[in-house]
Each structure stands twice: as C-alpha cells, then as structure tokens.
Amino acid sequence: MKTIIITKKSDYTWLRDIFPGLHPLLIPLCNKPFIEYLIDFSILVGSSGLRIISDGVISDVENFCEHGSQWGVEISYANILPSESLSKVLEKNSRFCSGERIMIISGLLFIHYNKRSDYRSFFASLPPGEIFGCSNGNLSLTGVPSELGKQETPPLLSPVVLDCIGQYYELSNEILHHRLADYVLPGYSNEAECFIGRNVVLQKSVTVIKPIIIGNNVQIFTGSVIGPGAIIGSNVIVDRESTVSESIVMDNTFIGEQLEVDKKIAAGNLLIDPESGYSLTMEDPHLLSGIKSKGISGSPFQRVTHGLTAAWMIMLLLLPYLLLKPFLKLSGCWKTEKIVYHSMKHGKKISLNRVSIEKQSILASIAVFLSLDRFTWLFWVLNGHLAIIGCSPVSVSQGIQIINNNTAGYRPGVFSYSEAEDWPQNTFDSDIVDHYYAVHSNLIKDIFLTQKALFNRIHHEDKI
Amino acid sequence: MIFHLDTSSEKAIGIAELQGRIDANNCNDLKKSFSQWLQYSSNIVFDCSGLEFIDSSGLGAIVDCLRKALEAHGDLRLSGLGPKVSLIFEITKAKKLFSMYPDSSSAVASFSLLGSV
Amino acid sequence: MTITEKNINNFAIISLQGILNASSAPKLKSHFEQSPEGVSVVIDLEKVEFIDSSGLGVLVGIARKKKASSAVLKLANLNDRVKKVFEITQAYTLFDIYDDVTAAAIE
C-alpha cells in the first residue's frame, strides 16, 4: 500500500486568507501539524510510501517532513496543475503508483483514527473506489483487494473536511475534549488530559484547569487562569491575570494582561471569533501582538553594501539628473506615475514615482542609458526600504498579499533580477527569474547581476 | 461625534454617535466632550454603530466616561456594537461593565423602563 | 551538457545530462531549432545536476513554441535538485511534470 495526499489551492484558500504565513498542511491541531495526522494514519493503514501532491507551493511542507525518516516512511513530493483530474494525477505519478494499491486522500480531509488500531487488513480487503467523500474532500482506493484477513468488525473511522474556521475550531476542541488518547501528541503528559512542552514557566498562583495542551517556550504570568479547553502553541506569553479558556492560542502570540480570551482563536495580533467567523487585527500591542521571529532582510553587511552602492550611484547621477530631467519634462518625454509599493520592511509601504522615458532624442537616450528613471528610487535603498537589486516591487493595488515563505523573502529592488536576463516575455517569466535569484543570489552575484541589468536596460527600451 | 438629546420620554437622555476609530490620538477629545454632555444629562447612550475600531486607550476613555456618568448618578449605555468592536469589549472584560443594546432606541427605552421600576 | 534523443510512440524523448545554465542553454535551444516543430517532446531531467534561471528560460521557450505548433512538451524524472528550483520559482505551473518517461510518452 502507498498513499497519495492531494491538496489543491482551491481547497484551502479560506485558510490561506486567515493565516497567510502558514501552509495549510502545517496548521496545528492540538499543537500537532495537520500533515502529521495524515502521515500517522497512512502508516496505520500500512503505507510504505507517501507522496504529497499540490498545485501550490509545498516547500514549507517539504522542509518540515523532509524524506520522512522521522516517521520511518518514505515521503516524496510532486506538483500538478490546478485543473487536473485524479486519473491524470495518477498517470503523472505512475512510477510511484506502479504495482501497488494506492490510498488517495484529497482535499483538506481529516480522518479520526485510533493509534492503537490496526487498519492494514481492513484496508487491504476493501474494494477499489471511494470509501467516503463529499463535495470538497474524499478518501479512495485503487488496485485489487486481497482476500486474506478480512475483518468482521471494521475499525471506526470518521472523516472531517476542514472548510471554514469554525470547523477548525470544532475539530481542535473535539480532539482536546474527547480524543486525546487516540493520537500521539507533543509534550509531556504526566497525567491524562494535560500535555506540557519544554521550557514552560508557570509563575506563582497560576491556575491550570484540564484539559489543556501547552507548547514549548511558554510563559504564563502571575494570577492567570489557563483552561479548561486551552490549546496554547509555542513561544507564547500570557501576561498577568488573564484567562484563556476554550480557546486556541497559536504560536508566537502575546496575550496582554487582564484579558479574558474565551471561545476565541488568537494568532499573533489576530483575534478570531470562530463562531461568527469575524476576525480582528489588533493594532494595540498591549492587548494582543505577534512575537516577532527573526527577520529575513539579509545580513547587515549586505545592507551596508547596498546602501553604499546606492550612495555612490546617487553622487554619480545627481548632476545628469538635475540637468536632464527638467529638459526632458519640458519636451514631454519624461512621464511619471505615483505608485504605492510594499516595502522590504515587513508591513510598510512606500510611494515611488514610476518614470517612463520616451527615447525620442539623444538626451532621452542618455537618460535611459544612465537609468535616470530609477534615480529617485535609490534614496529608498539608504533607509532600507529597497535593495539595489531584488525582485520587482509589488504594488499595493495589485492586492496580492506578501507572503513570507521560508524559501524566499520579499526583497524589492531598484533594479530587478529579471532585468538581468534576456528571456522573460511576461510578468510570470520575470517572477520565475526573481524567485530564482531571491534564493540563489549572494553579494558577489548581486554585483554581477546589477551590472548585467544596467547593461540590458540600454537595449530593452520597451521595458522602461 | 454627534450629540443630541432625546426628550421623547420623561427623562432627557443624551445620545452620542461615535464614528470611525477611537484610539490614542483622539480619546482625549471624547473625554473632554463627555464632560460637556454630562451638563445636559447624566444618562447617556453611545451609539457605536458607526464605530469601526477601538484600541486600549479608546477603551480606557469609554470606561472613564462610564465612571463619570456613575459619579453623576446616571449611567452610560452602549448600543449597536459591530462584531469587531464587540470582540475587543469581550476579551478585555469591558463587556461586563456596560449594559449593551442592539440599537440606540432600545438603549433609550431601557432608561425609562428602569425609571418606572 | 550532453543531449541524447530517441523515439517512443511518436514522442521525441530527449535526455539531458549535466549542467543546464546560461552557457549550455543555447545548445539546447539550437537543438530544438533544428528538430521539426510539430513533434511532441518529453524531456528527461533525471541526470541534470544543476539548472538555473536561464535554463528554465529555455524550457519555458520550448514549451511556448510547442504549444504554438499544437504539440506538447512534457518534463519527466525531475530529481530533487531540479524539483527544488521548479518549486521556488513556481515554474511548475507552466509544465506537465511526470515521474516516469514511458508514462509521459503516451498521448
């Protein structure tokens, strides 16, 4: 038996909207990532291999699960296109699927199981086809059933499709209140219904009421009441005299003092009421705030180098800029448009003048040659909002959320990596190049690519 | 902030419409205006249906208003809280301090009910 | 980089071996310019040790040309290093990717 897990972007857009930085397969249910439940289940079913397939980014899942040595099962990954049918997916993974029965879990489908049960002979005896399914998630089997070892009483399995935040909250609660013994959960558990992680500090007169789960590196201050029904993630601080009950506190969250968090989900500075689905972003650090993890804006050395390069270019281009700009503006070759972009600094916005120069005269060609259209952008490098070279800045009006994945941070540049390559024909092509160098570049390559971009810009007048 | 008096019942009741956001920048305005409103009536309703956001200093200001109203032997009641503002009142336990009503007319009516008891 | 070609079921199977970067990309490009346009192609990437953005550029270009002449380009046997590059650049959304050459060479 082997298992294929298919999650498409359309299955989890709702979750991505709420927790943009978190891959939906890694969303914690009682502090255990969703994918771990699926892995555990597929092992209980008797899988020797597992393939995680998606039409979206799965590198976060790959970084977490790696090759599966942690679970003793081989895990591999594959990409598909959004519109593809199941038979096409199986065809594309025919080497993985050949000669074995395949269990297919598709959608954000959670399956309640019991860690003490053995599902191998039961699943081996099931006929091919759908075992259970609904509109946006199902479990099915391919291949020929084996006649051996039919079970009289099939073990109890119940599926849940995660399709809204209320469902997520309910499922977490269901596990916490009724099924804690069914799963292997993280943390020490000296007594039932109470799991506590490493480096957890409970100050004086903290009351803990079971059932609760607490992650690693958690501090609960004096006089707080935790539980009943509290699921607290890792790197969480609950300030003094606050109560947390029937609630989920996600990783990296600070809960202010004297608050009452009841039947809520708190994640960073986001507070969600799972019943109504309303959410609120707190702007007030006294109430609720995110505990910042390390930024990815590059080494200080890199920033200084970019800053110095910008300063040098500003000195070099200041005179030509002051001389040429008024002239070109008068002759109508210099057109500007003000656009607000996302800055390199997380959550900040910058307003830049996007200049287009029509190469009508020799002077205009010189201006293009010197990249004077980007001159004003150089100043933003000095205060760290832009890099000299990076990806093309994303404008706020595009409505795309900047998602900081582990793989590539958003680093907008005065010049973009895609300008250093000849082949990109459309913005998607440019994105490929930008993404590639966001991961594969270093200081030396940056210098080389900046030169190449400057050189390329001279030839590609249509791009400016 | 728009303030007017409702004199439909025997008691004059002040109704203040709070709009937009109340935060560190404008919470002092609210405190100042509230002292003036108290001269017209000590029974006041905050109509929060137009209120979009409130932070902890804004919340502090509203609690301060309540205290002043109670000192003047009146009350401050809230009406029409949106789901987002209501969430903040809930987690900060401020919800327990206030009487809340779905709209301003029921909040106004609540004062006369109480008076008749 | 070495390029070897064979035929299965009217598909040209092209196996690449070595490094696909800015210096070897033109070789692959010219290989395709010489071959007939309307033939569908499977490119076997198992032995590609390294691919960079110029290498991706050539593959994107070939896919476009094949599409224009109503043929297809399929990629097969991506090893972990190559897969990683497709993943971070999200180039996988532009290609049909198979884990087996013979399965890819079926209409």
Structural summary, described in words:
- The complex is a heterotrimer of chains A (464), B (117) and C (107).
- Chain A is α/β, with parallel strands linked by helices.
- Chain A folds into three domains: 170 residues, Spore Coat Polysaccharide Biosynthesis Protein SpsA, Chain A, CATH 3.90.550.10; 105 residues, UDP N-Acetylglucosamine Acyltransferase, domain 1 (3 Solenoid), CATH 2.160.10; 164 residues, no CATH class.
- Chain A is built from twelve helices and 31 strands.
- Chain A has an eight-stranded mixed β-sheet with strand order 11-12-15-18-21-24-25-26, covered by helices on one side. A six-stranded mixed β-sheet of chain A has the order 5-4-1-6-9-8. In chain A, strands 13-16-19-22-27 form a five-stranded mixed β-sheet, with no helix packed on it.
- In chain A, a hairpin with a 2-residue loop joins β24 and β25.
- The longest helix of chain A has 31 residues.
- Chain A is globular and about 90 Å long.
- Chain A starts with a strand and ends in a 5-residue tail after the last helix.
- A five-stranded mixed β-sheet of chain B has the order 1-2-3-4-5, sandwiched between helices.
- In chain B, a hairpin with a 6-residue loop joins β1 and β2.
- Chain B is 44% helix and 30% strand.
- With 117 residues, chain B is α/β, with parallel strands linked by helices.
- Chain C has one domain: Transcription Regulator spoIIAA (2-Layer Sandwich).
- Chain C has a five-stranded mixed β-sheet with strand order 1-2-3-4-5.
- In chain C, α2 links the parallel β3 and β4.
- In chain C, α1 runs parallel beside α2.
- The relative contact order of chain C is 0.20.
- The mean pLDDT of chain C is 91.
- The chains are: A alpha/beta (464), B alpha/beta (117), C alpha/beta (107).
- Chains in contact: A-B, A-C.
- At the A-C interface, β5, α5 and α11 of A face α2, α3 and β5 of C.
SSE order and pairing:
The complex is a heterotrimer of chains A (464), B (117) and C (107).
Chain A: E1 2-7, H1 9-18, E2 28-29, E3 32-33, H2 34-44, E4 49-54, H3 59-65, E5 74-79, H4 86-92, H5 94-97, E6 102-107, E7 109-112, H6 120-125, E8 129-134, E9 137-142, E10 158-161, H7 165-178, E11 188-191, E12 194-196, E13 200-202, E14 207-208, E15 212-214, E16 218-220, E17 225-226, E18 230-232, E19 236-238, E20 243-245, E21 247-249, E22 253-255, E23 260-262, E24 265-267, E25 270-272, E26 279-281, E27 288-290, H8 300-330, E28 334-342, E29 349-357, H9 362-369, H10 378-382, E30 387-390, E31 413-416, H11 427-440, H12 443-459
Parallel strand pairs in A: 1-4, 1-6, 4-5, 12-15, 13-16, 14-17, 15-18, 16-19, 17-20, 18-21, 19-22, 20-23, 21-24, 30-31
Antiparallel strand pairs in A: 2-3, 6-9, 7-10, 8-9, 11-12, 22-27, 24-25, 25-26, 28-29
Chain B: E1 2-6, E2 13-22, H1 27-40, E3 43-54, H2 56-71, E4 75-79, H3 83-91, E5 99-101, H4 104-116
Parallel strand pairs in B: 2-3, 3-4, 4-5
Antiparallel strand pairs in B: 1-2
Helix pairs in contact in B: 1-2
Chain C: E1 2-8, E2 11-20, H1 25-34, E3 41-51, H2 53-68, E4 73-76, H3 80-89, E5 96-98, H4 101-104
Helix pairs in contact in C: 1-2
